[in-house]
Request: fold
Amino acid sequence: MSEHGPVQAKRGEPGRRSFLRSMLGAGAIGAAAGVAGDAGPALAAGSAPTAGAADPQGRLPAVPFHGLHQAGILPPPQRQTVVLAFDVTADTRDELTDLMRTLTVRSRFLTAGGIPAPAGTTGPPSDSGILGTAVVPDGLTVTVGVGASLFDRRFGLGSRKPVLLTAMEPFPNDDLDPAQCGGDLSLQLAAGSTDTVLHALRDIARHTRGGMQVRWRIDGFSSTPRPSGTPRNLMGFKDGIANPDTASSAQMSQLVWARAGVGGEPAWVAGGSYQVIRLIRMFVEFWDRISVTEQENLIGRARDTGAPLDADDEFASPDYNTDRNGAIIPLDAHIRLANPRTAQTAASQILRRGYNYDRGHDTVGNLDMGLIFTCYQQNIKRQFEAVQTRLIDEPLVDYISPFGGGYFFALPGVRDRTDYLGSTLLN
Reply:
């Protein structure tokens, strides 16, 4: 990966700093226009579709962009996603602020939809056009996080780093590839269709070029529930059944949202959440050669229904007190280790958001597919790391291999049109 220093422009291309000033300056103008109630240049030529209305192709309605929290955290997985990490190439804190303002302006427009600004007679088009003449929201959400490396000496943010935000260190059984780990910023785009996600990615890349560059990327999808209930992962099991109730503000306050001042957390973190991204390869060819009974014992659930092995419904709670010796659900089954369901481990529950990925095959011809594991929590050590520690050396490690990802802090939401992503951090 490239270092954080200046990036050499190719001959015939504008220098990075000049490109940054032109592109991010336009974004700042758009944000300033929003203060007065104007949607900015990208929205001026048209209005966004009405929330709740479906377009003729049946694409999803807009998800509100403004709020105390980012809109992509609580909803269940969309059909399509792309997850990326970026190295920030902006030089100064002012340039970083312009980058975040631009990212906000573009995200606000893309999630609402509308008519792109008309292009000049000689200039390039203002939009890629892959969605046609109008940008439809299709349920698009944009989730942005900051990594520990953003708090180095470049921008003077060291004293504002979330207390528990660190680089992601490998656990036993991991095989982490440095080229696919870490980053200054995380970005997840999720929507109802692939072209919506790719359109948003190209738009954001175009408007932020010179301010950040891709470090790693992975595309994912969520399977249609078959036959119903929770979607399945590429091992054939329903994935993400035992989650906290996102409709419960009490549970979200206890488990997901960071608290200013608690444990020394800076005030700006309120409304945000610690984000863990783990890229996990599944050795599906090996997995497909073992019996369904062995698979179920490794997971602790029935493959057909998703129910715990001691129950008939996927949402039933396993009764570990009755099955103390593991006669029904083995003591080293994945669900039993991850969530023992004791009073002591209740506080370690995480909000899990997973997507499948398929990257074709590796250099020796083995299928390269697996899971984009993402989770949100209030306390990364009390929750994710506690869960992951219990899973060290579980039997399932013979069939999976975590290889990338990182720890990030998902920023608080954008309150209104006068606000921008990371405002409380940067001001």
In short: Strands lie at 80-88, 141-146, 185-191, 212-221, 273-282, 351-361, 367-377, 400-410.
